[in-house]
Specification:
This protein has helices at about 15-25, 40-50, 60-70, 85-90, 105-120, 135-145, 160-165, 175, 185-195, 285-295, 305-325, and strands at about 5-10, 30-35, 60, 75, 95-100, 125, 150-160, 200-210, 220-225, 230-235, 245-250, 255-260, 260-265, 275, 330. The chain is an alpha/beta fold. The chain has a nine-stranded mixed beta sheet.
Length: about 325
């Protein structure tokens, strides 16, 4: 049986978008029909990298593209501060939306997007791919099943050579980046913490250092959840090498430790042991999952607008705490 034909367009054609482009173009009966980016070199690099014909229409203005091409769905991979307008324009044009993280950069914008999604009935998915990772799915299942008891403490760490690598680029621009490292790669860590625990943050205390730039580079954050669980998050944007992550959950009857993609499980009476891949759920591709969602082959949105709202609610509270120099309540209204 043939699949529903879907026409895709891209808003933002930089390096990140090209990975999406290769995934999307590899799905049966999905065609990329238009590209929008103010940079001609980015448009040309996208076409070459994804293997698209030179005849594909390209636009400097995304609104013009949406009107002329009339795609079924768009992938948004533009600077963070532009996400809100790009999302709203795409939804107004009747398009399903797959936006890169963070969804938006303010709680007010997140609530407006949520209302628009509800009003239009269209799908919006966010590029927090850890929801589809076998290791994090396993951690969520263990926590939610209660098989190791309640969560007592979580420690999460992320480091990256962000400060040096992004000098002079849009990610360190206060508007275009929508914040610093905390709202960039760090938002992945906040998102997966909230998703695995499925608990509401009650109070946060954060200390932040911008070093000599306008946005945050280093963040030390402590959180208390409504379940009583405590958490420490470290976002280190002034490090060496690529992205490094560590994630540990201590529960009443054991612990889970994720180190560089390797998952260890510790029972109360034993040592940490590797979790065999056969015991984990299958991993998924976020672009494929988005297409399945549109086609009705997936009934539940794995990374919906509510996830984007929760991330920015906690992020804004952390920024507020650092500015005030004290713990603050997280506004979840």
């Amino acid at each position: 049986m043939s699949k529903q034909k879907l026409n895709f367009a891209f808003i933002g054609c930089g390096g990140n978008a090209r990975g999406h482009g290769r995934s999307v173009s590899g799905v049966e009966d999905v065609e990329i029909i238009a590209l929008a980016d103010p940079s001609e070199s980015s448009l040309e690099a996208f076409k070459e990298n994804v293997g698209l014909d030179d005849s594909i229409p390209t636009y400097a203005d995304h609104v013009e593209m949406l009107s002329a091409a009339k795609p079924d769905a768009v992938v948004i991979s533009s600077p963070h501060g532009l996400h809100f307008q790009h999302i709203m324009d795409a939804l107004d044009a009747g398009c399903h939306v797959h936006t890169e993280k963070p969804m938006v950069c303010t709680v007010d914008h997140a609530k407006q997007v949520m209302t628009k999604v509800e009003d239009t009935g269209l799908h919006l998915m966010i590029g927090y791919q850890r929801h589809l990772s076998s290791t994090y799915q396993y951690c969520r299942n263990v926590v939610q099943s209660g098989e190791l008891g309640r969560v007592n403490f979580v420690a999460a760490h992320q480091s990256q050579n962000w400060y040096r690598n992004q000098q002079g680029k849009w990610r360190q621009d206060p508007f275009l980046g929508g914040g610093g490292q905390l709202n960039d790669s760090g938002s992945h860590l906040i998102d997966i913490l909230l998703w695995v625990l499925e608990a509401s943050p009650d109070t946060v205390f954060a200390m932040i250092d911008n070093l000599d730039i306008e946005v945050d580079v280093l963040t030390a954050m402590s959180i208390k959840f409504d379940t009583g669980a405590l958490c420490n998050i470290s976002i280190v944007g002034h490090a060496y090498g690529g992205v490094r992550e560590a994630f540990s959950i201590w529960l009443e009857e054991g612990a889970l430790h994720l180190r560089e993609g390797k998952l260890l499980r510790q029972e109360q009476s034993g040592n940490p042991e590797p979790v065999d891949e056969s015991e984990m759920p299958a991993s998924g591709n976020k672009d494929v999952a988005f297409i399945q969602l549109i086609r009705g082959e997936r009934t539940e949105n794995p990374i919906g607008v509510e996830n984007g709202l929760r991330v920015i609610q906690l992020t804004e509270a952390a920024w507020q705490s650092a500015e005030l120099g004290r713990a603050v309540k997280v506004d979840l209204s």
